Structure formats: C-alpha cells, structure tokens
Amino acid sequence: IRCWSNIPFITMPLSRAHGKSFAHRSELKHAKRIVVKLGSAVVTRGDECGLALGRLASIVEQVSMLQNQGREMMIVTSGAVAFGKQRLRHEILLSQSVRQALHSGQSQLKDMAIPVLEARACAAAGQSGLMALYEAMFTQYSICAAQILVTNLDFHDEQKRRNLNGTLHELLRMNIVPIINTNDAVVPPPEPNSDLQGVISVKDNDSLAARLAVEMKTDLLIVLSDVEGLFDSPPGSDDAKLIDIFYPGDQQSVTFGTKSRVGMGGMEAKVKAALWALQGGTSVVIANGTHPKISGHVITDIVEGKKVGTFFSEVKPAGPTVEQQAEMARAGGRTLAALQPEQRAEIIYRLADLLTDQREDILLANKKDLEEAENKGRLALPLLKRLSLSTSKLNSLAIGLRQIAASSQDSVGRVIRRTRIAKDLDLEQVTVPIGVLLVIFESRPDCLPQVSALAIASGNGLLLKGGKEAAHSNQILHHLTQEALSIHGVRDAVQLVNTREEVEDLCRLDKLIDLIIPRGSSQLVRNIQKAAKGIPVMGHSEGICHVYVDTDASVEKVTRIIRDSKCEYPAACNALETLLIHRDLLRTPLFDQIIDMLRVEQVKIHAGPKFASYLTFSPSEVKSLRTEYGDLECCIEVVDSVQEAVEHIHKYGSSHTDVIITENEKTAEFFLQHVDSACVFWNASTRFSDGYRFGLGAEVGISTSRIHARGPVGIEGLLTTKWLLRGDNHVVSDFSEHGSMKYLHESLPLPQRNVS
User: Fold this and answer.
1) Burial letters for 273-292: b for 16+ Cβ neighbours within 10 Å, e otherwise?
2) Percent helix / strand / coil, the chain, rounded to 5
3) How many Å apart are CA 79 and CA 61, to the nearest integer?
C-alpha cells in the first residue's frame, strides 16, 4: 500500500522489462504504465463547441479504476480549443447583446453574426477550464491530476526533455495522473514532413502521445478516436474490414481516408505515431472512444485483453487469424454443400475409418492431456472422465459417424414443399446449410469428430474452439478430420481455433459466424449466451432432469431406471438430478429399495423441503431445487400427484429431459402431454436423451430453446431453408384486379426421397 494525501491505494504486482512490446492482446493485462490519448472527436461534442461531458466522465472513471489498481496512468488530451470556443462564443454574444441594447435602447435583439474564432485564442481561453473539469472529475475518485503543456521545441531541447521526464516520473511516483496537451495557445502551425530522422515530430496529439510513450518507457498506448480502429479501406466503404492486428510493413495494404471532423491528425497520422511507438517498445491499440455502447468500458476492455479496436504487434502469428479461419470455413462450407451427397458421405466414412486406424496415436495424445490435467490438478473427476478417450469410445464414435454418413444422403437440397403459384410459376422450399457454425466445447475431445461429421453432412463450415485441457487430443482429431476432407478438396471447411482468442471475442464475430453451439458446463453456456449479442446460440444452460415415481410404478422398473439415470454417467447433462416421489410411496418397501440402491451406489442425497418435513433425521436439506449436481448427488422431493409433479418440473426444471415411471397409461399420457420439456419419457432412463441413441448418429448438443431445433440436434437441426421460384416472364401486375392471371396456390407432390 502506498499513500498520497493520506489516501491509501492498493497496488498490484505489475512489472516487466521495457524494450519489447507485448506480442498478444492477452498480455496487455500486465501493462503497468499506460498512456491514454483522447482525440478531439472523443472529447468534443458533435457541434464542436463544448465538451462531451458524459463521455469524458466515463473515461475518467475507467482511468481512475486502473490507477487505483496500482497502474501508472497518463492522459494526452485534446479539447482546450473546443472548450475555449464555447467560452469565447458566450462572451462575444454577451458583449454584442449589451452593446446592441445600449445602442438601440430596446430589449429586442437582432440576429448577431459570430466572427470566426482564432484557434490559439480559443486554446488560451479553454485550457484552464478544461483542467478544472478534469480535476473536479478525478476528485470524485480521490485522485489528484496535474496539467503539463508542451510544444515540439520541448522535445528538441535536451535539458527541457530531461526536465519533462523528471516531472512526469515524480508525478507518477506520487500517484498523480499527468494530463498532457500541446500548448495550442503558442504552438506554430504544423509543418508537413518535418520529422527528424528516427524521431517523430510533435505536430498533433497523436505524435505527442507516441513521443511521450517512448520517452516514458510506457507499456501501452491507447489511442481513442471516433472510428472502431484501423480499416483496410476508408470506413464506410462497402468492402471496409476492421483490422484486428496490424503489423509493421502492412501499410501498403491499407487505403487511408480523410481525417476526423475535428483535430489535427487523421488515421494515417495515428498509424504513423503508433508504429513509431511500437518500434520504441510500446504496445498500441487504436479504438473507438465515442460509441455509446462501448465507450463506458473501452479502456478497461483493452487492458483486459479483449478484442477491441486494432492492436499493433511486431509478432506475426504463424497461422491465419480467426477471422481468416471463419472466411475459409465459409468458402469451404459452400464448396462442401455443392458436393454430391455421396461425396459428403465418403468424407464421413473416411473419418470413421481414420478413428479406428489411428487409434493408438489418438490415445497417446489423449494420455498426454490426461497426465497434464492430473499434474496441474485443475479438473474435477467428472471433467476428467469427459476428457478421457478409450478404444470403446473410439469404436462407438466410428459407428455413430457411419450412421451419420448413411442418413445424410438426402439432407442438403431436399425439397420439403412445392406449390404451383400460377401457370408456369412453381415455388419450392428446399433445405440448405445454416452457414458457419462455431462450436465451443470443454473437456470432450470426442465432440470434435461428432460435430465435424454433422457439419460435413449438412454442408456447413465449422469453427471449433476446444478447451486447453484437450489440446493434444483436439489437434490430432482435427488433423484426421482435415485428412478426410482432403479426399474431395474441402480441407478448409473445418477449422480448429488455436489462437489466444477469448470465447467472448469469438462471440462478437457476428458478420462471420451464423450459429454458436456451446458444449460444456452450464456456466460456459450462460457466458456465451450473454456474450453473443448478434449471433443465435443453440443449446441449454442447465440439465436439471427429473424422474417422477408414480403410485402405480413397477417395483422392478423403478430401481433400474433410477440407477441408470443417475449413476451410469453422473456428469452428463441428461443425468437425473431431482427424484420426485409420490407421497403415498413414503415408508413403503419400494421407497426403502430406492434409498438402499442410492446408498450402495454412494449417491449423496439432498432432501427437498417437503421430503425433509416427513423425516425426523433427514439428509442435508437442499439449498436450491434448481441445482445441476453433475456428480453422484441428487435431490429427493415429495409430491402429492402427477399434476404437482408437472408443476414442480415447470417451476424448477430446465426443459431438458423428464421421466415418469408408472404402469398407469392414463397417468403416463397426462405427463407426456403436459410436461413442457425437449424430451419427455415414460418408463425409460433420462440417459436416452442423446443423438446417437435417437438414431441421429451423433448430436451437436441438446437444445432447450423453442425456435428452430429442440432436443438432441442432429443433421436436421443444422439446416435451414430457402425458396426457389421458377417462372416465365411473370410480373405481379398481371395478378392485379384487372390483370390477366390468377393465383392457383396448388400443392404439388414432393419428389421421391432417397432412403437407400
């Protein structure tokens, strides 16, 4: 803890040797000394007369938060001219109105023209007010700020440079935020191409920020402007794409547009300053500081390593970026969809063969993952089981893939509706791939070939993001998948994301990804659903599955179904979590058998509120009836009827899979029709809720949503439709009241499906 003005600050251990910039965004969280450059467009209002106070307050809040974490923050700010222009305009209007009132003797004023205000005078009038505003804002966070005005000459004079350097270091030592600006009241007009060899000339705040960043051995320079970052062509043009990472030498691939509405420098000046700072060992990010949705956290997001704006890096990755991978997957997916069904099936059959032929290599890679996970101790036992592959698992995978290949012959391009709109005007609705799928999965390498096969069968491009714990297994399984795809030249259709992309960043690629499918913990699914603003997410956040034991249940069936539902694979999302028992079964031999079986299987029992009220000495009472245990634990609760069981499921369930055990057909049918879940079973284990067991070959996941696909999602769930209209010189005006044609809207027979 260090103190300034009797205010304690908690410091965090942030230190690194300066001289080399950060190679990856994920390393930015280690930045200790940070310069934030606020462009004129960020600080000023849209009318260029006055400051954007709300935006400025948000920036001060973020800088204060980082300062109080123990970082050393500096601000290079514009805004003095705009603030001064507002003050001078007010003074001129007031002065003119007084003179006019005295001259005319009337209170009514005529229209008054405001003269063009000289920028240096505006700066002189605005600097004190701008600094007073910063001081007032930083005071709210118990932080002191200090103003420093500089000109280009201050950097050319060695003594002045040393003085400036010493002043800044002393301010940072005392936990004061320096606020630096060019002294626009005296600065001469900028001279083009006035840079000294190897030294950037201070002719705008971009170059000032870069010069300061290098002089002060800063870790990170954040340049905020009114555009999202650096584009490969002027923003707003049709083909403009935001550049995520910019490398030295890429300038020739960029076309610069005009500068922003205010300020001295355009994007070309920012890039030049950024590259100079990067060469001096300072990492740089150029981002949008004006967007209302992100400006409130843009600085903290950058420091946390999130994909915001353009990151300047000297280290070029060996492989493609994730954006390039998504584009490759889309192009590959379109080629895949254009193949004959037999060719897509051949690819899947080949992948199934490779899983068994390369069994030893796969298990060896999986063994490395298991050993690393056990040594690091970062995975719970249920997750270790999911991570583990075996010969039997690989054989089951191969069988499932062959099922997919056999059933996929008539998936893409299948006609599901034909309508004759009018004579010689026929309409068809046909199945087509969704586009590019992003599947994010944890601790389940067997998911990779399953999902790949389904994507291949449905003609979709695929991006896969696996967990670090399965890196070796995923690598070899993806290699085998691409080997299978190569037999028909569509190797790029399935991509494995190996870069340091955070899941949240992947979820922002709404222009490249059409559907996200999470496979993992309920927390992972919830995080993805929250992060994916513009991309639909297919899946379920929880698997709270119920088994209801009715009064007419068979003694022989009850223990078998409950044991299988809970104990066969407790980590699965389709495992039993809550056991509902009819009140009349309490203290009966059947109830005792259930309890004895659970004890033998070492299942920990949690009592629901009603069940606990019937017991003198009850097990631990459940904390929540809406709990997914994912282990050998379950909740037992008592209900008075099948109607109450249905109500309990609707209140506490997750619409995944729910079961009734009864011999009463009427009761069973009531349960089947009234429980509103993706899968509802009668006298069968919850574990049947699975794509392979449903005969789908495999599944990309189980969906509890109500749109598009529900339950285990196989090939059909990865398809959408498009409409094909075939006409002969038809126009809508022919069908008007006085037109020559009439609508028929006749249903036509569908073509015969290939079911071989």
Assistant:
1) bbbbbbebbbbbbbbbbbee
2) 40, 20, 40
3) 18
Nearest to 684 by CA among 664, 658, 719, 705: 658
The arrangement of strands across the sheet holding 72-77 comes to 145-150, 177-182, 72-77, 33-38, 220-225, 283-288, 310-312, 245-246
Higher-pLDDT residue of 98 and 151 is: 151
The rounded distance, in Å, linking the Cα atoms of 381 and 205 is: 55
Please provide the CATH number assigned to the domain covering 25-90+117-184+199-312. Answer: 3.40.1160.10
pLDDT tens figures, 247-297: 887 766 666 655 544 444 467 888 888 999 999 999 999 999 988 777 689
**Fold matches, 25-90+117-184+199-312 and 546-699:** no
Structure tokens at 29: 């969280």
pLDDT in tens, 57-74: 999 999 999 999 999 999
* DSSP conformational letter for 626: S
* pLDDT at position 2: 34
Q: How far is CA 242 from CA 237, 273, 309, 310, in A?
A: 11, 19, 8, 8
CB atoms < 10 A from the CB of 399, how many? 14
Map out the domains of the chain as residue ranges: 25-90+117-184+199-312, 322-411+432-531, 546-699
State how beta strands 33-38 and 701-703 pair. unpaired
> Picking from 305-314, 475-484, 588-597, which range would have the lowest pLDDT averaged per residue?
305-314
Give how far Cα 114 sits from Cα of 48, 90, 91, 111, 127, Å: 15, 10, 11, 10, 21
Is residue 63 within 8 A of residue 94, CB to CB? The reply is: no
Residue 400 in tokens = 């499932």
d(CA 402, CA 348): 7
CA dist 602 and 580 (Å) reads: 19
CA distances 689 to 287, 543, 614, 679, 701, Å, are 46, 11, 33, 7, 10
Q: Look at the alpha carbons of 661, 664, 665, 671 in this order and tell me if their dihedral is positive or negative.
A: negative
Burial profile 468-482: b = 16 or more Cβ within 10 angstroms, e = fewer? ebbbbbbbbbbebbb
Alpha carbon dihedral 187, 192, 195, 196, in 10-degree steps, equals -90
Between 378 and 624, name the one with better pLDDT. Answer: 624
- The predicted model gives 241-245 an average pLDDT of 86
Max CA separation in the chain (angstroms): 108
Closest CA to 311 of 249, 250, 244: 244
Over the stretch 201-231, which tens digit does the pLDDT of each residue have? 445 788 889 999 999 999 999 999 888 888 8
- For 255-305, the DSSP string reads ---PPPSSSS--HHHHHHHHHHHHHTT-EEEEEES--TTTTTTHHHHHHTT
Closest CA to 722 of 413, 489, 462: 413
Query: Under CATH, which number does the domain 546-699 receive?
Result: 3.40.309.10
Query: Which residue type does 529 have?
Result: Q
Query: With contact defined as beta carbons under 8 Å apart, do 438 and 465 qualify?
Result: yes
Tens of pLDDT, residue by residue over 669-721, are 999 999 999 999 999 999 999 988 888 877 888 888 877 788 888 888 899 99
Rounded distance between C-alpha atoms, residue 211 and residue 218, angstroms: 10
Q: Are 548 and 671 in contact (CB under 8 A)?
A: yes
CATH class held by domain 322-411+432-531: alpha beta
- CB within 8 A of 587, min separation 6: which ones? none
H/E/C letters for each residue in 57-113? HHHHHHHHHHHCCCCEEEEEECCHHHHHHHHHHHHHHHHHHHHHHHHHCCCCCCCCC
Contacts of 295 (CB under 8 A, 6+ apart): 55, 58, 59, 288, 289
CA–CA dist 441, 438 (Å, integer): 10
**Chain-wide mean pLDDT for the chain?**
86
